[in-house]
Amino acid sequence: MASSEQKPNVLILGGLNTYSRALAALLVPVEGESLVAHMRIVDKFAVVPPTTYIGAEFPKVLKKPNVEYVQRNLTIPSAVAQAFDPPEGQTAYDYVFDFTGEARPSRTEPVIINMTCAVARLIGLEAAKRKIKAYVRLQLPFYDTGSKSPRNEKADVEPEGTVGTWWHETLRMLAAIEDLNLVILRIGFAYGPYTDYGIITSAINVASVYGFIKRPMKSLWKPGDNPTNTVHVEDIAGAMHACAKWMADLGRKEADALAGEQIIFHNSKSRVSDVEGMPPHDQKLIAPLFNLVDDANSTLLSIGQVTTSFFGTTFQFFNQLKSAYAKFKLGELVEDINEAHVGGWTRMLILAQPPITSTPLTGYMDEYALKRHVVAFDNAKIKKVIGYQLRHPEFTHAELKDMIDKWKADGSWPNVENVAPPPDLNAAPDADDTDA
């Protein structure tokens, strides 16, 4: 192992409520040798006391002597610049990991643009100015790839909705920054310990409710391929770190030659003059891009089967008529669908041994979680070019058990293994009227 003088200084920006905690725990583990000399984490949340869920492990990481947490509003240019100033006695940052962006699809377009495009561009410009050796941007799976086959990095995939359009546009804005040592990591749907964000966590929570009330969980969407590729948060962390080391050894020009892909325009041409820093629609923009999903080739069906069987129930589908109705009227169904989910989850918390009085987890599924998502990525490139090896290649019962055991240990998950559901839950409305 290299000496501490040879280890990089790293800056992690955003993502405390999504996936940056896993990277922090990889770089500065609670047990074992640190991979970095100094690590600063910057986000809008407080951590003492926490204003977002941070799990049981992350506070231990924050206590390490080479870790610094800074609460800062990264929409402010001066705050971004200050984030890049290392503490006294430390050298400049070598790697920057960018997890920023508005991850809630329900937010308005101006909020998404400001919290995603504008923030990332501020960070990218500062990183280029400071000559950061590696800037790794995490791209969430706000895409519809189509279901015919996994799409590689050269494929033109369609951003999903307003949030997808502007997350994708952010990549073009970053790719246009001269001398930015940019690597883009585009992921599938994430799961793993202490991960309370995302549709996989929602599926796990709701499956537990149907296991508790001993009813099948049903999907609104008819059977089919419906790829819903998954990835473990520890692989997100490992791949982010691997991308940074790869870029630092090459620089942008050589990295583009080895792994550059065109970031294709998917927006309205009229917005180019409206949004600061948005490149012209016909500008050809190239940046190193890697897909990251596991080897499970997860689909809606496989995720449903893995989660429901873990809780002792089954995964089924509604009839074609209800699927067709949901396709056009999903917003009208959301509250009815959640009546059984939320009621069952609340009773599980009350009846748990011991009872759970506070948890970041919920049985509520918003409209985005209930929508049909089609994300199928090919992961061959990151394995071949960077040599990354998956630590968690399959979405299995063992992975679910690890998640739930850790939630139980930190008091977030209801222990109802020896608790029978009350008669009123067993007599819940017919599943055809309530399930997701």
Structure write-up:
It is a single chain. By secondary structure, the chain is α/β, with parallel strands linked by helices. The chain folds into 2 domains: 252 residues, 3-Layer(aba) Sandwich (Rossmann fold), CATH 3.40.50; 130 residues, no CATH class. The chain is 39% helix and 13% strand. The chain has 15 helices and 14 strands. The chain has an 8-stranded mixed β-sheet with strand order 3-2-1-4-5-8-13-12, sandwiched between helices. α2 links the parallel β2 and β3. α1 crosses α7, α6 crosses α9 and α6 crosses α10. It is globular and about 65 Å long. The C terminus is likely disordered.
The total beta strand count reads 14
Shape: globular
Briefly note the structural class of the backbone: alpha/beta
Mean of all residue-level pLDDT scores? 93
Named CATH topology of the largest domain: Rossmann fold
Q: Work out the strand percent.
A: 5-15%
> Which bin fits the share of residues in helices?
25-40%
Distance between the termini: 49 Å
Spatial strand sequence of the major β-sheet: 3-2-1-4-5-8-13-12
Query: Please, what is the oligomeric state?
Result: single chain
The SSE order reads EHEHEHEHEEEHEEHEEHHEEHEHHHHHH
- What's the CATH first level of the largest domain? Alpha Beta
CATH 4th-level superfamily of the largest domain: NAD(P)-binding Rossmann-like Domain
Based on the coordinates given, report the CATH architecture of the largest domain.
Answer: 3-Layer(aba) Sandwich
